[in-house]
Fold this sequence. Notes:
The chain is an alpha+beta fold and 130 residues long. It has a single domain (2-123), classed as Ubiquitin-like (UB roll), CATH 3.10.20. It has two helices and ten strands, in the order βββαβββαββββ. It has a five-stranded mixed sheet with strand order 2-1-10-7-8, with helices on one face. The protein has a three-stranded antiparallel sheet with strand order 4-6-5, with no helix packed on it. The protein has a two-stranded antiparallel ribbon with strand order 3-9. Strand 7 (95-99) and strand 8 (102-104) form a beta hairpin. The longest helix is centred in the N-terminal third of the chain and has 18 residues, at 30-47. The chain starts with a strand and ends in a 7-residue tail after the last strand.
Amino acid sequence: MAFVTFRDESATGKALDEFSLPDLPDRISARELVRLRVREEVARHNAAPSEHFRGLVKPTDAEAELNGYRMRAARRLDWEKQADAAEKAFARNGFILLIGDRQLDDLDEEVDLTADPVVSFIKLVPLVGG
């Protein structure tokens, strides 16, 4: 069983936030990794719901802030809806997924977590203007 660190990074590689999960399978798909990450961050939020959510993707009816998302009111989130939104965000290049120094392009790709247990997420911000 693998011990994995999920890390949010800036575009320059600076670590912004991270948490770890033990007892994951040695081999797992990128899709399962994204869904596990989202399930964990939503579980942490739901343990003490607040108006602020630090997660991979924006909840419905929330506004982006510097370090997360502000919701209209403190509420519990549905991890499956958030995970589905994360998969869609990946498909439209909303974030980059790295295992070690290797970028994953397909959520169905299987990864070996024993080789490199650090999974990095780099959120991409769309350019304004044109």
